[in-house]
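Action item from last week, closing it out:
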Amino acid sequence: MSYNRRTVLRGSLAASTALTLGAAAPAQAAAPAQALRGRPGAAWGVQTGDVTSSSGLVWVRSDRPARMIVETSATESFRRAHRWHGPLLGPGTDFTGTTALRGLPAGEQIHYRVTLADPDDPRRTGEPVYGTFRTAPTARRGRSGVRFLWSGDIAGQGWGINPDIGGFRAYEEMRRLDPDFFLCSGDTVYADAPLAPSVTLPDGRVWRNITTEEKSKVAETLDEYRGNFRYNLLDANVRRFNAQVPTVVQWDDHEVRNNWYPGQILDDARYTEKDVDVLAARSMRAFAEYFPLSTLPARGREGRVHRVVRYGPLLDVFVLDMRTYRNANSPGRAADDTIGILGAEQLAWLKRELSRSRAVWKVIASDMPLGLVVPDGATNYEAVAQGDPGAPLGRELQIAELLRYIKHRRITGTLWLTADVHYTSAQHYAPERAAFRDFAPFWEFVSGPLAAGGFPANALDGTFGPERVFVRAPERANVSPMESPQYFGEVDIDGGSGELTVRLRAEGGTVLFSKVLSPGRVGQDIG
């Protein structure tokens, strides 16, 4: 690690002494020394998110009411630091808060520290927590390359933080790669998956979970959803990662409940609240409290997950929300479907923003795959594909409309990244193999889980002509992280040539698959 990375880790660890891997209770039950002195503490660490060439968001959580103060500097000495006065943190946001940083220099390493002050006596402050991030480059500063990671599916299927194996180890491996940012592709928590203290594996070994009250049942109340988002921050690997690597985050189903859709009424004895819209609203509030998002609710504006994060001349990231606006899960055979998986308004937004983009590469961050068949029960389907390889039906109609638009507008440099299915794979889509042919070839890459159970590969739907070029998946369902490696992907864009390299990685340092794509082409061939 470089010197500045050591400083970040030292500050992060000093602030999180109450949250060791072996801790079995949330931080409210812990008592760091500064809490005993009556000063605000930030034991949950810091995060940054949605970083651009001139802006970024800094997040923190306090253990009591406090004023958030952020200082930024070009150096670790914090000479000539710029001070940003953030919000007052209180119970209305579960003591979390985000401060927007604007006017930052492009393509530079930004050092920051967060201090929490007693709102009644600003002289009484807690120990500062340190972090760092890089702003996106601009063409005027010379075109630098961009490198980021992506994955999803965290603490799922009964596999939580296991202190015996070092917790969420993939986060430490990703941190050491020092990416510009991390795209978290959904299922950031499993609010519908309680954790048992231990699970016996097929080979007789025992998996041991750190447990909390909120993870002992399915989440229904706002506090229970908040507790699910806090849970992952108990892991020291996650806190170190957050202090160094900005995130671009989206949600999927498990933030609320498996396979949910708007208007759904649950037939699940575990839930006393059966209205999914009520559960989704509570989860969205907690999600917005625990991640730094540039599209948070503001005066005159409704909060949302879908957005564009512009990361310099080489890259725009189009973050989708395939949950909030979808129609009901069904057999997917409707010949006319105007709602689809995105909703009409989000589809129009995506078309508009893709047309406006001048970035060399346009990554479409999808929380669900396109051509992989994802069932919901015996007869319904959860994603886009429904197993019929013929002409588009159901939700496929909306994707066909989008793909046709991309081709006819000659929008170049698109590729799709996702997680969701708990294995890693690369699919190439081509019209000559498809039932629907009015689109340009493109790639879809899948990577995950990051800290959850592994599952066998899903079947392909031939409507858009996918060919599975690579796949690595276990042969049985819900294989624990002790039995199968976790997966994440890497995207590396060369600042000179503009070539984009995708690497599918397995925990342990192995690159399983690599593909180089050339810029400036409407479609990308398989060769």
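Closing note: Residues 276-290 form the longest helix (15 residues).
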